[in-house]
Design brief:
The complex is a heterodimer of chains A (206) and B (205). Chain A is mainly alpha-helical. Chain A has a domain of 142 residues. Chain A is 67% helix and 2% strand. Chain A contains 10 helices and 2 strands, in the order ααααααααββαα. A two-stranded antiparallel sheet of chain A has the order 1-2. In chain A, a hairpin with a 2-residue loop joins strand 1 and strand 2. Chain B is mostly helical. The model of chain B has no long low-confidence stretch (mean pLDDT 85). Chains A and B meet through helix 2, helix 4 and helix 10 of A and helix 2, helix 4, helix 7 and helix 9 of B.
């Protein structure tokens, strides 16, 4: 039992990463990663929503008629998202303003719906909880990598603090403003996928 | 009128759903292998956006906003239900896609055969919910502007998915490093298309 449980958390990190392998939840991953702080907050919110929604759906899985399951899932997820949104507004108002509509979009984030359909509808609550945490971590890993690279090269800061010393700028170093523009996020994800697949040949497409 | 056209053009080119906000990326990546199916999905998205966004605008303005319920009784002037907007919007979208699907099935079997399989998918497409949430955030002043915004966003999305599908059809014959094949190259090309679309920045009628 213990080994299976560990796998549930470990696999989404690499072999079954929700973003680079399952291709779920791309929208928010790209949109919120221009800076590190919103990326971390977003990753945490998604992790909370996925794991709790997984548990609730898994508890209810035998009572939900399969014809209306999408609506039931949407209602439960949107309740959780409303809670997360209110908490963010109360605790970190600035970040919540930066994330703007993307907190609401966790409802239609495919990671949440995908894991509910693929896992929680057919597994026990505790396993579902671990699956939710695992997928949340896999998602967070990509978001934090992207946020780190884009903020470091795009604005020369990390978490809002300056890390590239002033002397570099005096010598003519410039921030790469393309990094904080949307197109670079897409290209960076492409490169991450390239890197991951060249390390792990099983994932290559024909 | 000019303001409406301005919003329409702006939401196709400058605030493109895919290239500027990455909304609806999941279905954009999954269903862009051939031009024909991507055209079907794109049309379905335009269709559903045109119905749900104005409807959500009315609901937001006459039921949810602070003071929106004054038309029932002045007592409600300080009532603010906007925290309910997520759940109401998604319920409207899910219900409307179901209705549209049944309506299309009854009235136009040809259109149904083309759009049918995509319509249920659309309920969980983030472009649809995203469009409603942007509508709420940007506070458009009248329903004409909202319709212009919905139509523009839909057409922008259609343009993007048909474009990438056409490119992917050609890509099948090119030699790409194996690990980059499929998903990787699609991301990079979308990035390049987004750079191209950036040249529309600042366009105004």
């Amino acid at each position: 039992m213990a080994t299976i449980n560990l796998k549930l958390i470990k696999n989404p990190f690499s072999k079954e990463n929700p973003i680079t392998v399952q291709v779920l939840g791309i929208c928010s991953a790209l949109a919120v990663t221009a800076k590190l702080q919103p990326a971390v907050v977003m990753a945490l919110s998604v992790m909370v929503v996925v794991s709790l929604a997984n548990v609730i759906i898994s508890l209810l899985r035998n009572t939900i008629p399969s014809r209306i399951r999408i609506i039931v899932q949407l209602v439960i997820v949107s309740l959780l998202v409303i809670l997360v949104d209110q908490v963010l507004k109360a605790l970190v108002y600035d970040v919540s303003k930066q994330l703007s509509v993307f907190v609401g979009l966790i409802i239609t984030n495919c990671i949440v719906m995908g894991r509910l359909e693929a896992f929680a509808m057919s597994h026990k609550p505790f396993d579902s909880f671990l699956d939710g945490i695992g997928n949340g971590l896999g998602y967070a890993a990509i978001l934090i990598t992207l946020g780190f690279i884009r903020e470091l090269f795009g604005s020369g800061t990390l978490w809002g603090f300056k890390v590239i010393p002033q002397i570099f700028y005096d010598w003519g170093y410039q921030n790469n403003s393309l990094m904080i523009m949307p197109p670079m996020a897409l290209i960076l994800v492409g490169l991450i996928i390239w890197f991951q697949r060249s390390r792990n040949k099983d994932l290559c497409e024909e | 009128m000019q303001e409406i056209i301005n919003i329409f053009v702006k939401s196709i080119f400058v605030d493109n759903m895919i290239f500027a906000f990455f909304l609806g990326m999941c279905s954009y990546l999954a269903i862009s292998k051939t031009v024909k199916t991507s055209m079907g999905l794109g049309l379905a998205v335009v269709f559903v956006l045109l119905i749900t966004v104005p409807l959500n605008y009315l609901i937001d303005n006459y039921l949810l906003k602070e003071g929106a319920l004054v038309w029932i009784s002045p007592k409600f002037a300080s009532l603010d239900l906007s925290y309910l907007s997520f759940i109401i919007f998604i319920a409207v979208i899910a219900a409307m896609t179901q209705l549209v699907e049944m309506f299309v099935e009854k009235t136009s079997p040809v259109l149904y055969a083309q759009l049918g399989i995509f319509l249920p998918l659309i309920a969980v497409n983030c472009a649809i919910l995203g469009c409603s949430l942007f509508m709420q955030e940007r506070q458009y002043s009248n329903i004409g502007e909202v319709v212009g915004f919905a139509l523009g966003s839909g057409i922008g999305w259609l343009l993007a998915i048909v474009g990438i599908a056409a490119i992917r059809e050609k890509l099948r014959y090119s030699q790409i490093p194996k690990p980059l094949k499929g998903l990787g190259i699609t991301f990079i090309i979308t990035g390049l298309m987004a750079i191209a679309f950036m040249s529309f920045l600042g366009i105004k009628l």
